[in-house]
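Entry 14: structure prediction run for Diguanylate cyclase (GGDEF)-like protein. Input pasted below.
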Amino acid sequence: MADHGAVHNHVLRWADVGFGVTDLHGKLSWANPALGTLIGVPADQALGRSLPALLPGAPETPQTGLVVQAAGQDDGEHRWLEISCTALPGGDQLLYRIMDITSWRDRELEATQQANALRRAQVLGRMGNWEWDITTDRVLWSDALLDMFGLEPGTELDYAGYIALVNPDDRQMIETSLAVARANGERFTYSHRMFVGVDNERFFECFGEVICDEDGTPVRMMGTCHDVTQDRRLQDELRQLAEEDPLTGLPNRRALTRELERHLATGGTGSLLLLDLDNFKDVNDLRGHAVGDRLMRTMAAALRERLDPGQLLGRLGGDEFAVVLPGYQEQDAAEVAGRLRDAVAGLPLVAGGATTRMTVSTGVAGFTSGEGWEAVLANADLALYASKAAGRNRVTVYDPGHYADTAKRVSVQDRLRKALEHGDLALHAMPIVALSSGRTLGYELLLRLEDGQLPLLGPADFLPAAERSDLVLEIDRWVFGKAIDTLVAHPDPNLRFDVNVSGRTLEDEDFADFVLDRLASSGVAPGRLGFEITETAAVTNLDAARSLAHQVRATGCRIALDDFGAGFGSFVHLKHLPITGLKIDGEFVRGIDSGTRDAVLVSGILEIARGFDLSVVAEWVERPAQVEMLSKLGVSVGQGFHLGKPKPLGSVLKPPDGALSDHLPTAEDGRS
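Run finished. Output C-alpha cells:
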C-alpha cells in the first residue's frame, strides 16, 4: 500500500491536471503543482487561500464540467479551464479538478468557424451536401441543401421523401444511377429537375461516391448537389437564340442547314425551296426598317400557316427564306412554292396610308442521299438567281444549265481585278460617334467600286464574288495600305480608322506581318488603326482569328468583333479571342426602341463586354429614339445613318495639315 501511495503522490505531483482540496468555504488545504500553475500561484503559496478568489468563476459548491476563461501568464493571453468540484467522503471537504482545455477549445472554435464558413459558401454557391447511411436508411442533408429544396433547416427527409420531390420523368434515372454505383462502388453523377414549391422547377447537378467496408459492402453514400437552374435556363435561352432568327422566331440558317444535313445523312430525299423577296431593299429605303421588319414577320407567319407539319421553314438572313420538304419531288415542290408565292403576293402592306404588295422569287432543288447540304443549297441558289433574272415573282426548278449564270459572277471578279489595277477602287468613311456629344471618334472605312461601268455594283454585289477567289487578299491589302497612307498624310492623333478583314484574309498567314510592318515603317501610332472581323469569320476560322488578334494586340492596334451576337455562336469562344471591342449586330439595334427583346439582348452583350473589359459600338443607329434607348442601356458609341452616312474619304479630311474636318455628323447628315 505504501508503494501504491508513493505512486499516487508521484502521479499527482507530475500530472498536468490540477487537483486541490478545500474546506466548505473554499480555503485550500492541499494542492498539487499543476493546480498552482493553472491558477498562477505556486501550490505552497496558495494553501490557506480561497480558491474561488484565486480563480474567478470557480464554483463554491459541487458542480461538474464548468468552463471558464482565465488570464494567461502573458499579456493578452487567455486560457480555457474546465473545473469540476465534488464533495469528499465526510462532507466537510471539496475536491477540485482543473484541466487546461485551451487547445481543444480553440480547435472546436476553429471547426465551428470552418463549418459556418462552409455553410455560408454553400448558400452563396447554391450548393449543398448529403450523406446516406445505407445500413440505417437515414439521409443527412446540409442546411444549405434543405433550403434549396424549400425546406426548413434540420428537416427530416428520407430517400423516399426526396424522390417524391423529383420530377417524375427523372426518378428512374436517379434510381438507376444509384443502383449502378452501389453495385460497382464507383463514383456517380446525374442531373435532375425538382419541384420546389408551387410551379417552381429547379435544376440540380449531383456528384457522389460510395463508401464500402472492409468486405467491399457499400455502407454509405455521400454527395453534393448544385443548383444550376440559372445556368441551365441561360444555356437553353442561348441555344434557342443560336438556332432561332430573332426577328421572325423561325429557325435560322444554322438550324435549317443542320436539318437538311440530317435528312441527307439518313438517306432521305426531298426538295429545298429558296425564297427571296423581290425589291425588298426598296421597302427599307423608302418606308424604313420598322416597316421592313413588320413585313418580314408578316411574311414568316403567312408562309408558316401554309406549310404542313414536318416541312421546316427557316430564315437564312436578310430577305431570304428556305423550306425543307422531305419526300417531295422537284415538280411537287414547285407546286408548293407556287402556292407560297401566291400567298405572299396576296399580302397587303399598309404603311403611311399607302398599300403596296410584295412578290417573291423562288428556286427549287431536289436532294438525295449522298449529296452535301452545301451543294443542295448552291443548286437552289442558282435556280433562285434564274427566277430573278427571268423577271422575278416566279418559281424555277434547278437545271444544270444554270451554271451558265455563274459566269456572270466571274465577270464581277474581272471588273474588280481591273479596278484594282487601274485605281478604280475607292474608300468611303462612316463616322463612329459618341452618342452623348455627337463627337466623331473615328471612321469605319468601306470599299466602293467606281469603275464607271454598268450595272453599278455595291459592296453586297462585288464582295461575295471577291471572297470566292484570292482576289480578296489583294483587295484587303490595298485597303489597309490606303488607310495607313492616309494616316501618315494626316497625323492628327484624333483621326482613327477601323478596317474590315475578310474571312479569307484571316487564313493568309502573311497578312498580319504585311500590315504591321507597313505600320511600323510609316511611324503611325498603332492605336490609330483598328481591325474588324465578323463573328461568323472568327468562329469559322477561330485559330486564324486568335493568331491575328494576338499579333495585333501585341503592337498596340485595336481589334473588334463585328456583327457580334448575330447567332450567339461566338460566346463560347469569346474568352479565347484577345480582342479589344465588340460591335453589336444591327439586328439587335434596329428595334431596340420598340419594346422588343432587343434591349434585353443588348444589355446582356454589354454585361459580357464589361466582364471582358471590351469597348462597345452599336451599329445601325438610324433614329433619335435608338440613341436615347442605347444611352439608357449604357452604350456610349454608335454608328448609322442617323449619326452620319458614309462619305468619300477625302471629304471628311482637311488638306494634309493633319487635322480632321471640323464638321461633326448630325441627324441631318443621316437624311441627306
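Notes: The radius of gyration is 39 Å. Will compare against the previous run tomorrow.
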